[in-house]
Amino acid sequence: MFDSNTQDTVKELRALSQLINASIDEIEHAMVSRGQSFPLLNESYSLESEIPRMEPDMVAAGAVITSAAAQLIAAVRIPAVSALVTALQYEVSSSLRGVIQAHVPEILREAGVKGLHVSDIAASTKVDPSRLGERFV
Predict the structure, then answer these.
(1) Neighbouring C-alpha atoms within 13 Å toward the C-beta of 68
(2) What's the pLDDT tens digit per position in 82-91?
(3) What does the pLDDT look like over 72-116, one tens digit per residue?
(4) What's the Cα-to-Cα distance from 112 to each of 17, 37, 38, rounded to whole Å?
(5) From residue 63, how far is each of 22, 24, 58, 86, 96 by CA, in Å?
(6) What is the pTM of this model?
(7) CA nearest 107: which of 67, 71, 137, 70?
């Protein structure tokens, strides 16, 4: 049988899950009522594709989802792993800087939805393909 701590933890996890699900329901309802589609991660980015995500109600629902998801992750992840992930986050910003300086977004935009192999990107950037693939993309 569960002790009260376990019951409280499970109750908290379920509440966070319900917040996420309720916000997804809000997104679905808004998209159906507007006749829009929510952008997919595997679709090419464009300002037009992001219009549904920029609506105030979508921003609010997204904020609830990301906040609840972050709390859910914090609740279930081993604290040492959270500390390690936080300590290594600087690599993301330095990688973004490298990608921007090498003009990788422009190269990929020109390549279109099929993308480009890292060797082809590297040829245009004069960056070692193994470094580019390992650190940036």
Answers:
(1) 19
(2) 999 999 888 8
(3) 999 999 999 999 999 988 888 888 888 899 999 999 988 888 888
(4) 36, 21, 20
(5) 12, 11, 8, 20, 23
(6) 0.72
(7) 137
